[in-house]
Records
---
Amino acid sequence: MNLKRYLPILQWAPGYSRGDATSDLIAAAIVTVMLIPQSLAYALLAGLPAQVGLYASILPLVAYAVFGTSRTLSVGPVAVVSLMTAAALAPLAELGSTEYIAGAVLIAVMSGLMLTVMGILKLGFLANFLSHPVISGFISASGLVIAASQLKHLLGVQASGHNLLDIGTSLLDAFGDINTPTLLVGAGTLLFLCWARHGLKPLLVKLGLTLRLADILTKTAPILAVLITTLLAWYFRLDQQGVRLVGEIPSGLPSFTLPSLDTALWSQLAVSALLISVVGFVESVSVGQTLAAKRRQRIDPDQELIGLGTANLSAGFSGGMPVTGGFSRSVVNFDAGAETPAAGAYAAVGIALATLFLTPAIAWLPQATLAATIIVAVVTLVDLPALLRTFRYSRTDFGAMLATIVLTLVHSVEAGIIAGVGLSIGLFLYRTSRPHCAVLGRVPGTEHFRNILRHDVEVCPKVTFLRVDESLYFANARFLEETVIELVARELELKDLVLVCPAVNLIDASALESLEAMNERLSDAGVRLHLSEVKGPVMDRLKGTELLERMGGQVFLSTYQAWRTLTGHHSAMAPSER
Amino acid sequence: MNLKRYLPILQWAPGYSRGDATSDLIAAAIVTVMLIPQSLAYALLAGLPAQVGLYASILPLVAYAVFGTSRTLSVGPVAVVSLMTAAALAPLAELGSTEYIAGAVLIAVMSGLMLTVMGILKLGFLANFLSHPVISGFISASGLVIAASQLKHLLGVQASGHNLLDIGTSLLDAFGDINTPTLLVGAGTLLFLCWARHGLKPLLVKLGLTLRLADILTKTAPILAVLITTLLAWYFRLDQQGVRLVGEIPSGLPSFTLPSLDTALWSQLAVSALLISVVGFVESVSVGQTLAAKRRQRIDPDQELIGLGTANLSAGFSGGMPVTGGFSRSVVNFDAGAETPAAGAYAAVGIALATLFLTPAIAWLPQATLAATIIVAVVTLVDLPALLRTFRYSRTDFGAMLATIVLTLVHSVEAGIIAGVGLSIGLFLYRTSRPHCAVLGRVPGTEHFRNILRHDVEVCPKVTFLRVDESLYFANARFLEETVIELVARELELKDLVLVCPAVNLIDASALESLEAMNERLSDAGVRLHLSEVKGPVMDRLKGTELLERMGGQVFLSTYQAWRTLTGHHSAMAPSER
């Protein structure tokens, strides 16, 4: 049983049927065709030689097929992670240098180790600290930065930078150097891909294809663009016109690579590797869960960490770059009918064949074509409706989202994500440090108690029912103390104060001390402190503390009981209550 | 009114009476006598020349008298802040060098600025993030480190370090160099002070003194030790025996000092200054609140920030060191009968006179005497019962406390406090990320619902009432989703799921998306999602979201209403319910 848990392949491989194999092989063929340009493009985006993208699409797929729990997730280089890799390596090594490539390998290995260890320690919940608004804002902003970073390839100029400001100024400086043939190739590809996205599918359906086939063919439009522009580049010798091509890349399978053991480099890259791991994990899990839900399957987040961890380790040791489960490729795999992770392993074989036999053709591929495919892909990452929805629902969440977006756009991806996480945690703590408190009255004739400011309720001047809508812990302990002291100073007739605790899920040691201090002050002022509706787990812990011993009042099971005992209205109640 | 708020002196100065003045003058005389050795000792502890301690006990007291809200707090150098200052400066400058002294001035100025700005922005609540267990553990551990750091003065050897490990090894290395006369002075003072603490008061009472006078005289025992050892040192020329003395210090009032404007130094000291500010503020406020409560006075934490901020600014600009409200000196001031902050201002005059006329005598004071007074003072900081109490009440809080203690002891004060704060926030988030959930049943014959695992209650197999005991936010959004999915997979007859929300104080944007996703999945499984007991503020926000539109079920005011509507037991209920 346990072995099956850690090796999910054992869950599906024994029952693997001929039918499954057929479905998986078809899906693999489609995914392979799509993966080739995507892998090359994301390597380019990460500032790496094109073949590194291919290497990262072979062994990682096999590793994920063995250790991953999603049946349809397709693992490989993805846009956001590639951008983060480039941003992490930029300050450490010159673009394209041996050290730069070694840095990418090291990030993959470190990220693989981190993910695997987190999986073994079951730390998948850590990813929850990336709130939805932060991750959505981060991905939208990254999409814009990525699109901007590709403009230089489209224009055929030199430019650099990993945020909109740097990219913008460096593009403006290079504006005079625009290469017209490059622009024609790039803009042409861009227009074709945009059209394919909206116009190709209806056209194919009109030509008599089934909806599903038309859909899949539409998604392979990038490979068509790649084929055509490669042919054009070769036929017209476009490199002599200043069009930059992918150029010669070593043919053959990747060889075993050892990561650098330079501890200084490890510590310099640690934060980046961690952020890449977490962002990659969150992206992958949300894609995996969305797809699994559609087929009523489940994925196990902790095992996913191991799946992605081993995928990254094998990417690193085979000279690749950091990988994760990508959205577009997984959707293609899913739509093409993949039944098991074996589809991924078959696609790995497809990519391996490409590195063996297709490299001479790939050499003629214009970089502008790849840039156009990236731009078209990442523009879909920008999710404006999510921005609006968050703004309407909660200004606090929107604040964290906006900080993430602005910092990602104008500073760096890392600053954006760190600020987002820090701000969402800080704002949550701030909210809980000033909890909503309500003075309650009784809904006439019932056992229910409601906020006196919102409902028409009975009150008793000698007894105040105060509901605190938050767990009591260090951040709000003093706030409660002050609220109660002010209340007591205001209500001169007060004899009994009942803290109504259905929303108190925890009383920590700091809050306990505050309650004890509060009890002292109340008894000095001649007011008895009571508690009502204390939850089981909270009560278990309070038993045996000095608070309960010293408290002048009682602990009531229900607020209504407290009302009956303290207001002395027992006989005035409706007969139904007896 | 507003002026009075920001200048608390206006609250008491107009009504200042002759009686107040008499009380304040008496208290000031006693505090002055006590402050002189304490100021010298804490300057020594911070690695600063002795006069710096005196300088920090003049103007800051005047500033606090004008801006502070506590009537009895006594401001000046205190043990923990002095240790933190030494730890902050150690890596930057050589002990006792001009740069080192300038660093202390800069920390005082930065801390003054930070506190004042925090006060103006009303950020006093930030101090709440230092939980009681963390601050108590930190102060206990600091007490031990401080005591250990003074052993070298007691033994007359050279040693260094700001944690137990470093101090221990460096003391072991120097063990052969022990200077016997120094040890005799130091150990003698230590024994005298320990005896004074327990034996002097009963003796004085037996000799016929009133209890109060005996108490105050006991607390001035350190000054007696100072007088005697100074006389001994002078009479026997102990400096020629290797006993280190305070030595010649410039006589006269401090002169105006400008802090360094070196931005690199500012940024190097920023974190230390912030930690010193926060720790000093927390210590001062807790002392101030304790004393204020005894006389039914109040202090205003935000104005306290301004009081301490201006005190530190004036300490910095007069060549002093960081200051805060100290426990022992404030208690002496309180016990001696101080009525208003004017007592502090009078004590400032006393210290000023000392810098003018007593410096020749102070030159003969042995450092071992000061070390002994420090050790006796800080040992009271170690609070073992608090450790035990926290261990019994909550292992989580104890974990944060222990981490603080261990890191403070073996690494550094800054690491200790940062780890403590980080860990308490992290553990709080972890707890809230896996909230307590309870399936509820109805207490027979009532409108109350309780956990089916803890109470004997009625249930209905087609309707599940799930109470989540936590606000729903990003950290637990996915956890809830998984809990519900598992529940639905287990309860095959389930038709209606009611989320009982009295403990849900907040639903953030991430949790809203999770609820929407959960609603989709439930409706796919043929289960309707309902909500009950949604709080007013939460409901206000949910209105207008897609969740309410798409939800198959209803929102019930009470769980009992949901029970009546969904279980169809209406007619089966007790007649009292009609």
Note: Confidence is low (pLDDT under 50) at residues 569-578 of chain B.
---
Amino acid sequence: MKAIIVKPPNPGAEVKDIELSQEVKPGQVRIKTLYTGICGTDRGIVSGKITFSRPQENASELILGHEAMGVVEEVGEGVERFKKGDLVVPVVRRGCGICLNCKIGRPDFCETGKFVEAGIRGLNGFMREEFVDDVMYLVRVPEPIKDIGMLTEPLSNVVKAVDEILNIQNRMIWTCGDSTYECRNALVVGSGPIGTFFSLLLRTNGFNVYLLNKRDPSPTEAYIAERMSTTFYNTTQGLEKLPSADVIVDTTGYPSAFLPLLKKFKKNAILVLFGTSSGDKVEIDADLVTFFVENNIAVVGSVNASKEHFREAVNYLTLWKEKYGSLVPRMITSMVSPENGPEVVSKKIPGEIKTVIKWS
Amino acid sequence: MKAIIVKPPNPGAEVKDIELSQEVKPGQVRIKTLYTGICGTDRGIVSGKITFSRPQENASELILGHEAMGVVEEVGEGVERFKKGDLVVPVVRRGCGICLNCKIGRPDFCETGKFVEAGIRGLNGFMREEFVDDVMYLVRVPEPIKDIGMLTEPLSNVVKAVDEILNIQNRMIWTCGDSTYECRNALVVGSGPIGTFFSLLLRTNGFNVYLLNKRDPSPTEAYIAERMSTTFYNTTQGLEKLPSADVIVDTTGYPSAFLPLLKKFKKNAILVLFGTSSGDKVEIDADLVTFFVENNIAVVGSVNASKEHFREAVNYLTLWKEKYGSLVPRMITSMVSPENGPEVVSKKIPGEIKTVIKWS
Amino acid sequence: MKAIIVKPPNPGAEVKDIELSQEVKPGQVRIKTLYTGICGTDRGIVSGKITFSRPQENASELILGHEAMGVVEEVGEGVERFKKGDLVVPVVRRGCGICLNCKIGRPDFCETGKFVEAGIRGLNGFMREEFVDDVMYLVRVPEPIKDIGMLTEPLSNVVKAVDEILNIQNRMIWTCGDSTYECRNALVVGSGPIGTFFSLLLRTNGFNVYLLNKRDPSPTEAYIAERMSTTFYNTTQGLEKLPSADVIVDTTGYPSAFLPLLKKFKKNAILVLFGTSSGDKVEIDADLVTFFVENNIAVVGSVNASKEHFREAVNYLTLWKEKYGSLVPRMITSMVSPENGPEVVSKKIPGEIKTVIKWS
Amino acid sequence: MKAIIVKPPNPGAEVKDIELSQEVKPGQVRIKTLYTGICGTDRGIVSGKITFSRPQENASELILGHEAMGVVEEVGEGVERFKKGDLVVPVVRRGCGICLNCKIGRPDFCETGKFVEAGIRGLNGFMREEFVDDVMYLVRVPEPIKDIGMLTEPLSNVVKAVDEILNIQNRMIWTCGDSTYECRNALVVGSGPIGTFFSLLLRTNGFNVYLLNKRDPSPTEAYIAERMSTTFYNTTQGLEKLPSADVIVDTTGYPSAFLPLLKKFKKNAILVLFGTSSGDKVEIDADLVTFFVENNIAVVGSVNASKEHFREAVNYLTLWKEKYGSLVPRMITSMVSPENGPEVVSKKIPGEIKTVIKWS
């Protein structure tokens, strides 16, 4: 079957016809891949910049792809939860089996680092015509979101990060006088798919959201921002018109992008670090530390998601489909064939929010 | 009566005979001051470096002092909780009455900043022979810790900070396989009274603790470290011999002191910012941000304490008195008369851990 | 305008033309009522069995109705959150302003009992052509659920109760090895609208749900149960075929209905009491107490909901509309005119799940 | 060596000279038993009433005893945490290794029931001259509480139960306006060692405590109650003089003892079931269910404790020794030799609070 493969740590990606006849064992199902999404991690692997990527043990190539949706084709012995025709999304990280967090199903908090991640490190991914997986790693997707279900994985990471915000802020009363979060302001730095999902999710939780970039919005971005009642803010105009902030989410990884915003922080605020990059340098001083102390400021880095977060992501996509109609579908700005996969995974398409490969 | 007064924002402190005849209203008690401790905040006010200090409304002078213990002398109408002769410690911060956190008794999380703090801003402190206070601001101290009860206030802030650690780390399984914290390592930067209290409290919670300074310990520090089964670590020897860390607590406020330690962090670790200073500058880069993201690292600044934390601090002092005997009493390295207050509040005594003024 | 009024504690209800010219003050909006639902509490008031019902202060009559949806007609000064044409649902209970829970927006946990409840005690309800309310008591409803938005109130109480389950069970690891609740079984006693909502909500949270009644399902009930992948179970066949239970929810109020089920409890299970009734008596013994102790069993009674629960209820209705299509709309088994209100509020319609009055 | 053995399910106990030469393997220590306490469970086993008691696999006898303190005599290879001469208390329950709660060190919440309990079921207990145990099951006790350290086990179960109270009540604001629990009233039913420990622990957490029995206090009980500022209340005088209650703790297991007290419940209150018994029967009705619903009442059964609770119990004993002097030591009303063990384990000593066997 066709697959998109990489040879980390070497750069490059190719479409290849592979033979990978996988038997469906008890407790497993065979899944025909429908769509796979492309994200920065895929591009980091293909460019050779992500150095932790590696093939499965004893293999020289890795099948790329960790954002996927497929349809169940064949059901193994003893499987009751799924039947032929069900739409499913696979989880990415599979735990080490050693640390307590992995034992309770939270490999996103793995302590040993001995996990594998499909399409990233140590486990083949989903950019191929079909794959076999254990049912414990699969999440069901309802029919009405068949067109956007492949966005479950990126959204799941955002669901986990917002979970972190709410868990951590539970250290005090952070809800408003009417029990909602409607008095809280969130600034989201970066307007790609992750920034958009943070905005949607925080908005759904009641927050007032400002989506920040250092340029004006594209027409699609402007539509999305208005449809979900958020403000798209061009930071090159200065920060004066931004409100004071209870949450700042960085999706860029550039300290120079989010550090100047910290002066907008209210007391007891929280900074969420989600984006990763390299190279950028900034100076911090003792006054910033004092500011964090005097105002009970929290910071949290957040990575990955549990299966429960995938389930919740599916529910949010379903809710948003009913509430916002074409908003989320419009985030998929390009749909390409597997043959064009190596090209789009190597280079961003102009105006892209999310590029998706259609497998069947 | 005698009092130590300051005129913020001007530097300087003096002993003065003041007339401040306070009536004991219903719900109040009159307290004879026994001891007041001196801390960095007092010295910052006296040096003029702390710019937020201010007298009570309509006053030109502020009575200094926020670490106090006294004995109840006179009990107002309707007071049932205290009787003459009871030892008490007053809380420092009194809430704004507006924000939700203040309404539920958590002014340490005040959102408006419209609180007052005895001896610091907007409310006279306790460096005087007696004071009158509402019972709701008083915490009882048992007789056996009469000699160390004035340490309740500094400890209360540490109790709150450790509360923050445990609350925030609840985002995952952070206890060990035997339900304790005995597999967790904490590095505490700075070996003053605050660093010592962090070490004692984390130790009491089961953590393995390393107390860090850029010099060898004084004999008293060496005694204290050994007595509580912690390691005093001189960082000038390099960081190689330190274990990997689940918690780093900074009590110095200098980013150059704690940033190099972050390379010791394990996954899911937490950095607690408690110390404040100024001037120090360091460079951070995008790789540090990526490290925080990939490893779910949290940071929290912590300030002040609630009355419940004062109560718990009293319990910890009592426990440590029984368990460690003279350890905590030995933290009081000097006891001076009020007349010497202005001098010791202006300048640190060599070898000082905690200097205390004895009022009667 | 037309209104349905009662004179508690006397039985009876009537449609009456009332004059109640309410001005729209700053921060308020005028709402044209679209629909009001009828529930057991309304019927308890009309039958005279609910003894705590009372008119507003200085009034002799009470306007009935607490399950409502309307459309904003007029917006008061300073109102930014709503505009003409917005669909809204009002919350029912308004806090005492004294206890801490009411101060932070959680009157569902009021400690003093000095709250009022629209249409129930001390505050006129929504069974009238229009009403004026403060924006802080209003929750927005999106257009796509205009036909079912009046179900927000009953669902909000279920959202709070499930919140209680998850909060309380946090005392241990209660999620399954894959981080979801898919290994947990819930038995819901009673198949009315509340039982149906508990089933839907627990199902959406991953639980396996059994909906229990002492008869076979009606065709509509059978459809609903199958559509949401739950099992409708007739308890007259004995309890043998029921699985062991992690949650039992009683919506009947009859101890004789839920007590026999407790033998199905697994360790660490929880019983939720939601239904209220009277008259029924059963005997319990020390062995039941021992069973609760040895197995860490919890019980919680749950009443009312916060505004945040109303918001979440709106989101669930939206999600279910997309996912299950006509399932929730089919719960509305009758739609009557205000003139027929007194009749349907006095007597259940055969086959009724939810009866709704259409106001415009 | 001498040991007290039982042959469950048969009644009876005897002192016997057993040969049980246990080697000290790596990670283990040999412990010389100093004291073992006697509790209701021991007596239930000896009377034959507790039917779940059983010997270790392939054994016909069980060594009794689960409340113990000893001193380390010999240290196995690789043991760093303990050294010869250290005082230690062993935990009782050892997990199933299968369920998630046991995997994270919380066998007190074991889901499978496949745990063993030293001296109770499936594992020999500590009523013998010495025993060998893994260090992971041992908790260190400081010298100053050598005389009361054997009370750690019963207290640990109370610590867990109070943990349950505070965890569950976190569902709302339950702290008072000053952040403490000083406005909350607790009624503790039963004045044995468990009732006394509940009173001490709730008192230490700030609660106002009433210790209830259906008789006047013994002189020792009167002393203890006064010393810890609680009220000993004889319920035969009626309940009128009791205050309304936020917590009721039952330590008797008799529903007829605690059910009449429920009329004292405030809104949002919690009933803790800790005692177990049999035979007693009472009638409850639908009005009680309605009361639970309308007032958000919670109930929780609590059994056993984690190792962390043992650690905290040691800290509380140490604190109370300093604060209350001889209060806790006076709870040990008799100290007997092993030879007298079978007699005292068969029958309560008049005036007994806690009877202890001294082994060396």
Note: The domain at 156-301 of chain A is CATH 3.40.50.720 (Rossmann fold).
